[in-house]
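The freezer alarm interrupted the setup, so I double-checked each line after restarting. Inputs confirmed:
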Amino acid sequence: MKIKVGLIGAGGFGNIHLQAYAKNPNCEIVAISSRTKIHAENAAQRFSVDKIYFGDDGWKSMIKTEDLNAVSVSTPNYLHAPMVLEALHNGLHVLCEKPICITRNELEELEQTINKTDLIFVTSFQKRFNPVISVLKSIIDAEILGKLINVKYNFSHFGPYTSWKALSEERWFFDSRMAGGGVLLDLGVHGIDLLRYLIGEYKEINGVNSNTSCIDMKDEDNCNVLFKFQNDTLGMISVSWCNYPSEIIELYGKKGNLRIDFRSKRPISFQPSSLKKKKLIKKALSIKIHSNNYQDKVINHFIDAIINNEQKHPNFLDGKRAVEFVLEAYNILRNRE
Ligand SMILES: NC(=O)c1ccc[n+]([C@@H]2O[C@H](COP(=O)([O-])OP(=O)(O)OC[C@H]3O[C@@H](n4cnc5c(N)ncnc54)[C@H](OP(=O)(O)O)[C@@H]3O)[C@@H](O)[C@H]2O)c1
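Predicted 3D structure, all chains:
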């Protein structure tokens, strides 16, 4: 039996979801809903999908009318929670884009609803699926760098309408009401998710600074967060919609350090050079690393989870902890004003 999927939000990333579903032999895209008719039509034509829904509430009709097993939610952030709740109430499995919601109340309502169902919920943290990330985790777990003291994640590009092709003419990413925040909510959630996967749960945020230096918007377009993991490792996340594009993870431990620069031709560097003899380091060096999108892998993972009825990471808790991290950082900034 093929899993019947409906997409909500035929924008820039919604089309990437569709590409991935179209390649997966175990599912079928049954319907597409988007706010603007032509966007739903274009996507439907591109992926040979018969049914489209449009308008602000078309997605509700899609959920009610179509015989679906699952939905993929890829809309402006403020719509994630209401759409996910409606889907869950209608017995559908959900893949939700990050951030999974924008307020603490929404987190609570989502959690209560999810805890009452056996439905699969996947947070679309596609960066976890870069093959080098699991090798990096093995390197950390095997303590090849010794006890880690500091870890850093930097992710920058020129924003959703320059470096990334967001499609909706609402330009919602720069509107607090629809986006729920700035670059930290957009890119920082990836950072904290990757570092939680690699290092473990975070404990506390110790400092935040931010500014708005290049985009005409109220929220931040640059942000740094200093924090601590439960195992005492110190963390730093730096995100920007103004800086030249980069994505870098740095790990500093008692026996060595390692840096992955995802956009570099020679992405991995480390010290001391004797580490190159270690099997896991050789394995990491053998992987062709890029800053690509791994959405195919998240979607295959989602479809497999539904078929095998097996909830794995990145799950609701992963989505929740990332949003909590950002909301806590925003709280610190707000209290300082
Ligand atoms: N995981 C990742 O790495 C990653 C990367 C990029 C984006 N994202 C996330 O994906 C989500 C979408 O971002 P995007 O870049 O694709 O933005 P986008 O291109 O602006 O797409 C948003 C889409 O939502 C649709 N929409 C708005 N209101 C709607 C409604 N009431 N019913 C149905 N559809 C509605 C818009 O419809 P119309 O265009 O038809 O008006 C638009 O197509 C965001 O949450 C973003 O954070 C994740």
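Quick read of the result. The pocket of NAP is lined by residues 8-14, 33-36, 39, 56, 59, 74-77, 79, 97-98, 124, 126, 160, 164, 166-168, 186 (CB under 6 Å).
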